[in-house]
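Hey team,

Filing this mostly as a record. A colleague (T.K.) asked me to run one chain through the structure pipeline before their review meeting, and I want the input and output archived in the tracker in case anyone asks later how it was produced. No errors, nothing strange. Just documentation.

Input sequence:
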Amino acid sequence: MGLGPPDDTKAAPGPRPSFCPSVRQYLRRHLRSRPSRCRPAMAAPARAWLVFGFSPEEAAGEPGPGLAPRRLEAGPEGILRVWPAWSYVVVETGAGLEVRSAGLRRRLPGWAEALPSETHLVLRGPAEARAWRREAAVAGALQDEPAWSRALPPEPRQPLPLLPGGFATPRPPFFTALPAGLRARRLVLGTEHALALGAAGEVFTWGGGRHGQLGHGMLESEPQPRLVEALAGVPMWAVAAGGWHSASVSEAGDLYMWGWNESGQLALPSKALVEERAQDDVCTGNAKLVPCQEQSAAKDTPFISIQAFPALLDLPQDLEVSGVSCGSRHTAVVTRGGELYTWGWGKYGQLGHGDIASSDQARRVEHLVAEGLRAEEVVCGPWTTYVRVLEP
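Output structure:
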């Protein structure tokens, strides 16, 4: 029922109060001159994107910027989203899309979303999707003939790589149809596999499975989307795909991981990392005698190279997860409390801990805590980690 005029029968006006002239003058004078106590409009919270790890300069053979976090130059319009590849990144600003590589920035007018790779860049606009070779896209030469194009109907859009009837890939054949009965609301691509998040929170996987990245308990490939039965009955709201590992986040904030753990990217005990650390100690002269019982404990540690079923990962202090992203061999999550945790391969500083060490344990990125920054979103490139932060 809409709001109508006041009901006069319920709020009949009473007699006006009577004041002596001196009181009236006092009220008029002081009410007119009283300064307004309305608070000024609060400024919008300041947000920024930070990046750790491999840089476009290093991809071009130039010296890198070091291990310290780098702030993406935003300009007055700010940065809304990022889509990183290995040697370049596409960002969305208030003025549209922009591709950035070593020493170059090119506007991509008329396009709304990006799906980058080292061979091609797929762009989506209001009425079509197109793919250009990486060299043409980075140079901003979108007037060149695209390698692929597909007309899109005027219907509600889902985020790339989803397209009506299927999904795009940033390499040939560029489009793959999905089964008609699969209603996906999110789709992510790994190096050899894909994950889809269904309308009811179920997870489907398909593609290469030799590292257990499909989560079906075996190492075979799957040509068509198949339900991850181990997660059935647990509604998910986010999925992520790394090079050869996968992750999902439940509606309750629990994190599940599966696939290859060669670099500790599942935050499970990695034999390769233990051997790597031991070799580093020998090479740097830090080798030391270890008591027999510790050697035995290390020997008996149940190392995990491949996790073929989804495993529930316990973060420190039972933290709940709000977002997850996977790089080639590393993983990053944002907690509901605004903290960033990373683990896995760290050779280029992509874990954000100020070193190049890899880790098979979830570690909080202390730089954000020290600076009073609240993590809101994380996006991993192959060897990089981009995090959107809320500044104090």
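Quick notes for T.K.: The first strand starts at residue 47 and ends at 53. The CA atoms of residues 181 and 198 lie 10 Å apart.
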